[in-house]
Amino acid sequence: MTKIIAFGVTPEEAEVMEQWSKAHSIHVEMTPEYITPETVHLAEGFDGITNMQVSDIVEPVYSKLKELGIPVIAQRSAGYEMYDLKAASDNDVIITNVPSYSPESIAEFVVYAAMRLIRNSDEIDQRVASQNFTWEPSIRSHSIQSLKVAVIGVGRIGSRVAKIYKHGFGAEVVGYDIVEHEEFKEHVVYQPDLQTAIKDADIVTIHMPLTEDNYHQFNHDLFNQMKPGTTLINAARGKIVKTQDLIEAIDRGQIKNAALDVYEDEGPFIPKNWEGQVIEDEVFLQILNHPNIHYTPHIAYYTDIAVQNLVEGGLNSALEVIKTGTDEHRVN
Ligand code: NAD
Fold it and tell me: What DSSP designation does 164 have?
């Protein structure tokens, strides 16, 4: 019987894995452990691996897998930057991802996150908690219909975000992408470059992958080219935004506020319970405590349908590599 080991398994994933295991007659062993040089030995005797983690998977994991004859790690997320693809390829380990599991879930979340900021929800909640029911300019808001939204990265998620803003709210929606897709032009007016797209937007919402070209692309210089008072949403990858520069731009009023579902050094924190422990990452602490930053722990994707699609996608890819030696979602 084919045997797959699943690393980084949460209790809710376990349920879906059990159903998949029965339906496919494949043994799926589950562990909450992440793959590290210390835990990789757990894979001994298995035909393939599926994994979910955000911290780096480093050598000597890949050479150990080669030694164990394991040909695949099927990551249960779209992002795969935690893998050393060269080391994996050098050791004949195929890495796969699940490129699309519910773009709607992320799109809906980022629009909600922007709405919270635009409608001053935190401040209104605080006032209501202290029985202050007055109306004052500090909590007066804007109709989204009157705003201009810039979508940066108009792909699966970005195009849905654009669609909601344009056709749901009637907002003006511009976008920037290194590739323009004809079918998205009914939702977004493409701009020739990032600077033009962001320069007079009220909401800038980031939906591109992290690449060598956009590391810390949202930095002091770019913030200065935005309209003062912009709302920034990042649910893509933390390293696209230079966090320290963002905090500084918010503190001097250049950026009004931000919703961050990702943080550039989130590895040690996501998805872990740090209750009662001391966080020493000063920048992360500043985000957590900043009144104008709404932080969420990489949770935009987190819906029932997304969890099911991720688990099944990872297991299907692991099985496909075991059976055929490759998979349509391989990334190396
Ligand atoms: P996608 O590949 O469908 O779309 C990404 C788009 O970005 C593409 O159209 C691509 O051409 C464009 N792009 C790439 N580099 C660019 C650049 N330098 N400048 C402008 N555009 C650029 O991907 P997707 O499914 O829409 O996902 C987008 C990102 O969202 C992912 O890469 C991931 O980082 C993030 N994500 C976050 C969560 C979450 O829970 N927070 C969940 C899933 C995905």
Answer: I
CB 56 within 8 A of CB 267: yes
For residue range 266-313, what is the model confidence (pLDDT) as tens digits? 989 998 899 999 999 999 999 999 999 999 999 999 999 999 999 999
Ligand 1 atom having least distance to the Cα of 157: 26
Q: Is 159 helix (H, G, I), strand (E, B) or coil?
A: helix
Residue to probe by mutation, ligand 1, list 82, 100, 178, 208, most atoms within 8 Å of CB: 208
- ∠ CA 55-57-61, nearest 5°, is 150
Rounded-to-integer distance, Cα 24 and Cα 302, Å: 25
The protein residue with its alpha carbon nearest to ligand 1, atom 4, reads: 155
Side-chain half-sphere exposure of 106, counting CA atoms within 13 A: 30
**Quick one: tokens of 40?**
């990789």
- Tell me: the pLDDT tens digits for 123-176? 999 999 999 999 999 999 999 999 999 999 999 999 999 999 999 999 999 999
- Is 213 near ligand 1, meaning CB less than 6 Å away? yes
Rg of the chain over CA atoms, in angstroms?
22
Beta strands in 31-77 (DSSP E): 48-51, 72-75
Residue 308 beta carbon below 6 angstroms from any ligand 1 atom? no
Q: Is 266 in the pocket of ligand 1 (CB under 6 A)?
A: no
Q: Is 252 assigned a catalytic role?
A: no
> Does a cis peptide bond (omega within 30 degrees of 0) precede residue 297?
no
Q: Is 206 in the pocket of ligand 1 (CB under 6 A)?
A: no
- And the tokens for 142? 């804007």
pTM equals: 0.90
Q: What ranges in the chain are assigned the alpha helix state H?
A: 11-24, 61-68, 85-90, 103-118, 121-129, 156-163, 194-198, 220-225, 243-251, 282-289, 304-324
Percent of the chain whose pLDDT exceeds 90 = 97
- The answer, yes or no, to whether any atom of ligand 1 lies below 6 A from the CB of 160, is no
